[in-house]
Design a protein that fits this description.
Elements lengths: L6 E6 L12 H11 L3 E7 L1 E2 L4 E2 L7 E6 L2 E6 L10 H16 L9 E5 L6 H9 L3 E6 L5 H5 L8 H15 L3 E4 L4 H7 L15 E3 L6 H10 L5 H4 L4 E6 L8 H9 L7 E6 L5 H10 L5 E3 L9 H7 L2 E4 L14 H9 L3 E3 L7 H5 L2 E3 L5 H13 L1 H17 L2 H14 L1
Helix pairs in contact: 1-16, 2-3, 7-11, 9-14, 11-12, 12-15
Length: about 425
């Protein structure tokens, strides 16, 4: 049992300081763990992947930052700009290797929860061996599988065979494997890594615990933190909202093309919150083509304002270009925020183990054309009974992804050891 084990490292390359972090899983779990008597350290890289800022410009190997109820350690790594470039892979390896080098300078862990970035982070497993710590993997993104689906490597090429070998090694040497993907066991079966097919991984030690939302905090923020935006408050328009990155992979241009089909209908508006490489070009397109029902809103908002923003909409959009790496499920943070808002969700891609479809919280379709997009939106606008049913379903689904319930599942994993 884990009763005597008090120190736990939550290791996640992409974690950010709490004042700007939008992926709150480790923050929330850390607070619950502290309440249960653990001493918790959240360990991340000095280069903030989402903010594109490096916290260490000097010669320090690492820095500590302490917040109320939270202890952070940031490990020095190089900066990068291309999310799929070699410098990012190098920075990820740097994080693992540099953490390995300074392991004895940090509080000795009894447990290491390792958010994986395979194949870059084998040294974190080595740390668990050198420090005699219980090693648990936590996988949000299927690296290296995503490399092949994105076309970066051939799935049967030598690099991918090596990467998959490393992946199997990591999972098979962990005491437990946690995935945020509902299809995680099928993924392992498809590789024939499970014991039933002669592999080394016991599927009874594999657990699905998705990302989620703090519902109490969501309601608090919705009521206390509101932005002054007439477009959100307008009671005479049906508001269709997208919040997130405005880059090629998000396919926001499809939303703009759909909005064009509503030109002349002043009762429908499209609100775009977020920034990215495509925003400027899309703003020019909207201006030049007089698509007056599209409103580009804040490029960035603090997470505490998000509950109010998405609760003011009538439909919230999950929009991205089709990729093969969603076959085994997804764990997009804004999906759970959308569920908590209690408004129908329209997703333009059916993913594996689709949460929107499973809970009936909206419409999830492989939308190929703006015309198809418009028809779906119009059907929700005109079918009040279905709209209400989906709204209720979204709220109910959010309960299953409340962080307090997800932590209960995580604590059960710890108690198995």
């Amino acid at each position: 049992m884990m009763g005597s084990k008090k120190v736990i490292w939550l290791v996640c390359n992409n974690v950010q300081p709490p004042e700007i972090d939008t992926h709150l899983r480790h923050q929330k779990f850390a607070k619950f763990l502290k309440q249960d008597g653990y001493e918790v350290y959240i360990i991340g890289a000095s280069y903030l992947h989402y903010s594109k800022k490096n916290l260490i410009e000097g010669k320090e190997d690492y820095i500590r930052r302490n917040y109320p109820d939270l202890n952070y350690i940031f490990i020095k790594v190089s900066s990068y700009t291309n999310n799929t470039g070699i410098r990012r892979f190098y920075s990820n390896f740097q994080f693992a290797w540099n953490l390995f080098k300074i392991r004895n300078k940090l509080p000795k862990p009894d447990i290491i929860l390792h958010n994986t970035r395979i194949p870059c982070d084998v040294p974190i497993y080595w740390i668990s061996q050198r420090l005699n710590a219980t090693y648990i993997t936590e996988t949000w993104d299927l690296w290296p599988y995503g490399f092949a689906t994105a076309g970066l490597f051939k799935n049967d090429g030598i690099p991918m065979r090596l990467f998959y070998w490393i992946e199997k090694f990591i999972y098979s040497h962990a005491e437990r494997n946690i995935f945020t993907l509902a299809g995680c066991k099928q993924y392992l079966k498809d590789h024939k890594w499970d014991k039933e097919q002669g592999g080394p991984i016991d599927l009874d030690h594999v657990h699905y615990i998705n990302n989620g939302i703090d519902l109490v905090e969501f309601e608090k923020y919705k009521n206390e933190y509101q932005i002054d935006a007439p477009e959100l408050r307008d009671p005479n328009t049906f508001k269709i909202l997208y919040l997130g990155s405005v880059s090629i992979i998000n396919g926001v241009d499809r939303i703009i093309e759909t909005a064009k089909l509503f030109k002349g209908d002043n009762k429908v508006s499209f609100l775009i919150f977020g920034d990215g490489t495509e925003r400027e070009a899309l703003e020019i397109k909207v201006k030049n083509e007089h698509i007056d029902n599209v409103h580009f809103m804040n490029k960035w908002v603090e997470i505490k304002y998000v509950p109010y923003i998405i609760s003011c909409s009538d439909i919230n959009l999950l929009n991205y270009t089709q990729t093969g790496d969603m076959k085994y499920g997804g764990s997009q943070g804004k999906l759970f925020q959308y569920l908590a808002a209690g408004k129908p969700i329209v997703s333009n891609n059916i993913i594996g183990y689709d949460i929107v479809r499973y809970y009936g919280a909206g419409v999830s379709e492989d939308i190929k054309t703006p015309e198809q997009y418009k028809n779906i939106l119009c059907s929700l606008m005109n079918d009040k009974a279905s709209y209400e049913k989906m709204s209720i379903a979204a709220k109910k689904a959010a309960q299953n992804f409340d962080f307090k319930n997800l932590y209960r599942l995580f604590k059960e994993v710890l108690d198995e050891l």
